[in-house]
């Protein structure tokens, strides 16, 4: 007989004479003549309870299992007399699939700290919190594809290995090849050419926007910045829409629509899992999410943002001056204290932004925007792109970028150039927003940070 997933069993519309459940034991309680097993198979947050009578075979199986063991229970699905659950299993058969030594199995019934669980990232998805996290992560990824598919955007796969530095920040990992059979780097380049791991798929996506209209990428990106913050990792996933015939306002509209869509989707589709975060992780989660949905986001020119920060009755660690890049403390002040909702800061000084952003008529700012959200700061960074060849070349010269390296990129401005705009959203930061989890290490299966290359 085929197994039924626990989530489906708990949603049954009537009792069943025969059911097979496979899962991991969360708890085992023995009574006189029978035992209770709480089982979870990862399909949902809720456990199913199995009640098994003490036959000799079942007693032999019970003696081998404790928290963490995997089992197969066969029996009937019956209405549960206990409160809080509609259905339970009356077990007739109990098979041990895999034992878990109680002396060494690290996940016991008590609550473990996030710091401890990071040291066993390979086992933490077996806990309630991380099971919920990774189900939400999966749902969020699907929702992103659905959002774009419904709007007629095409999904483009841009390369991971690249020869160009999109952001021009020099924070790239080098790719080398190994001698066959060796683990020592032979300092070999990519077939004789220097190559890196991509920091962004944007430049490639622009080529496709200027061909297919509306496109997006969604894939892993890499940053070799050695920063140890709760918001930065060396490997993260980024969603990058790019739209032809669009300007900065269209870009901000899309980002706002997308954030609201994703929050709504997760609230509608993951109620149990979100509830866990709202109850146990962040008491402020629901009000924050409702606030995001309620009103239009604030749109604030950078120059006005600087004035607000200068006049704020608050001591910042980094002094505020026109021309500076906003730090997380400034970003959070704007969206958490000043406006109490997401804020788009736009039209930043050109000197702090990459070469591809469109120069404004004032000659000193570019059509850039960052979307700042409560508790996180920057969630989205994007811009209208410089579509005018002469302006782009002048900017590249100013920044000492070599035209030859970008010949293909420049071709898009030579042949049928058009206004276009796009942005990048950090997938993990979006996940932090919808779960209230404060550390990016806790929204990724196996985070890559300066101290973590294990697993
Ligand atoms: O602002 P960033 O660097 O923008 C770009 O890479 C553009 N090329 C995107 C585009 O216009 N297509 O990164 C975009 C977003 C940030 O707002 C942030 O959410 C996330 O990516 N991000 C990181 N997330 C985790 N760890 C890091 N080290 C991140 N760096 C950026
Ligand atoms: Mg940015």
Automatic annotation (TrEMBL):
EC number per UniProt: 6.1.1.22
Annotated Aminoacyl-transfer RNA synthetases class-II family profile domain residues: 130-445
Subcellular location: Cytoplasm
Gene3D superfamilies reported in the protein's UniProt record: Bira Bifunctional Protein, Domain 2 (3.30.930.10), Nucleic acid-binding proteins (2.40.50.140)
Keywords from the UniProt entry: Aminoacyl-tRNA synthetase, ATP-binding, Cytoplasm, Ligase, Nucleotide-binding, Protein biosynthesis
Molecular functions per Gene Ontology: asparagine-tRNA ligase activity; ATP binding; nucleic acid binding
One GO cellular component term noted in the UniProt record for this chain: cytoplasm
Recorded catalytic activity of this chain's protein: tRNA(Asn) + L-asparagine + ATP = L-asparaginyl-tRNA(Asn) + AMP + diphosphate + H(+)
Enzyme class: ligase
Gene Ontology biological process terms, A to Z: asparaginyl-tRNA aminoacylation
Taxonomic superkingdom: Bacteria
InterPro entries: Aa-tRNA-synt_II, aa-tRNA-synth_II, aa-tRNA-synth_II/BPL/LPL, Asn-tRNA-ligase, Asp/Asn-tRNA-synth_IIb, NA-bd_OB-fold, NA-bd_OB_tRNA
Major localization class: cytoplasm
A Pfam family: tRNA-synt_2
CDD domains the UniProt entry points to: AsxRS_core, EcAsnRS_like_N
Entry annotated with the keyword Transport: no
Stored SUPFAM superfamilies: Class II aaRS and biotin synthetases, Nucleic acid-binding proteins
Family affiliation: Belongs to the class-II aminoacyl-tRNA synthetase family.
Assembly and oligomerization: Homodimer.
The protein's name in its UniProt record: Asparagine--tRNA ligase
Organism: Pseudodesulfovibrio aespoeensis (strain ATCC 700646 / DSM 10631 / Aspo-2) (Desulfovibrio aespoeensis)
Gene it is expressed from: asnS
